[in-house]
Amino acid sequence: MNRLLPTAHLVDGSLYVFRAWHSMPDEFTDAEGHPANAVHGFTRFLCELLEKTKPEHIAVAFDASLTTSFRNAIYPAYKANRELPPPDLERQFVLCREVAEALGIVVLIDHSFEADDLIGSVLWNLRSQGFRSVIVSADKDFGQLLGEHDEQWDYGRGLRWGPAGVYEKLGVHPHQVADYLALCGDSVDNIPGVPGIGAKTAAALLAHFGDLDALLDRADEVAFLRLRGAASAAKKLREHGEDARMYRRLTRIALDAPVPDSADALRRQRSEWSRLEALCERLRFGPLTRTRLKALID
Fold it and tell me: What pLDDT score does 267 carry?
């Protein structure tokens, strides 16, 4: 992992807004009396991240596509197990984006592509320009994006890992993560996977066959592997092979989302205190947060 390469920090914004919403007390309100706990918590997180990393290149991606992403067209049940954010939280998402923009950070959002796809597409573009990326998120799906010099950073737990860490966590290499999730499913996104194929079996099958296509093409061979329930697994793979291929279209992060293509477009911009100060008034930020915000743009 070459930490000397120019680095871009790509932040999974929605994750940290939700974390703030669940962890911050509901005593915070804005000037109009609406709840503001999520935006207070998210702003503190953003301040801390900027103070620690002092990034030249940074973007924060948000989800706006819970029911409208291209994956819903492929599989209508995708994420159907999730409730839509309540209006109070929806309002705070907008304010969190405003805070990020006021701090000079590029905000990425799209109604057809999820935050994962926006981050993946930026990372892919930047890699071709000699950059390494640090993905700030705890989401296991991002493992599929990690190249030799990239890292994922679970900020809340203070854990960082590169491609080798993906294997330690899941038992598969980054290029196998989408196949792995298609096989064993992902309950968070309402993707069922192949019945009877759990995480350990999926990892063992991919270690043997390499990828999902080779596995499905040679499904008959699975019955002869030294694997618990091998005969049953072979039968399920024959029956649900096309489903698994379809699930992979859901678990694979898109690399062609509409994002800025040049590294320069992701440079942190100079900010005007007047814009931030107005936000501080609206959100009733205390003196400590105001001082931190002011220091970050001086």
Answer: 97
One domain for residues 192 and 229: yes
Q: Which domain holds residue 246?
A: 174-251
Asked if 28 contacts 36 with a C-beta cutoff of 8 angstroms, the reply is: yes
pLDDT single digits (tens) 110-130: 999 999 999 999 999 999 999
Residue ranges of alpha helices (H) inside 103-176 are 115-127, 163-170
Look at residue 65 and tell me whether its pLDDT is greater than 80.
no
Residue with the larger pLDDT of the pair 140 and 68: 140
Tokens of residue 282, six digits: 């609206």
- Let me know whether 66 and 82 are in one domain: yes
Q: Tell me how far apart the alpha carbons of residues 51 and 292 are, in angstroms, rounded to a whole number.
A: 9
User: 135 with 12: CB under 8 angstroms?
Assistant: yes
Do 40 and 70 belong together in one domain?
yes
Residue 16 covered by a domain? yes
CATH of the domain at 209: 1.10.150.20
In a domain, 1, yes or no: no
Position 34 in a domain: yes
pLDDT bracket for residue 208 (50, 70, 90): very high
Whole-number pLDDT of residue 67:
77
Number of structural domains (the chain) is 2
For residues 243 and 212, the answer to whether their CB atoms sit within 8 Å is: no
Alpha-carbon gap, residue 275 to 38, rounded angstroms: 20
Per-residue pLDDT, averaged over 231-235, amounts to 95
Q: Is residue 280 in some structural domain?
A: yes
Q: With beta carbons less than 8 A apart as the criterion, state whether 166 and 146 touch.
A: yes
Residue 195 near residue 187, CB atoms below 8 Å: no
> 53-79 burial string, b = 16+ CB within 10 Å, else e?
eebebbbbbbbbbbeebbbbeebeebb
Max CA separation in the chain (angstroms): 69
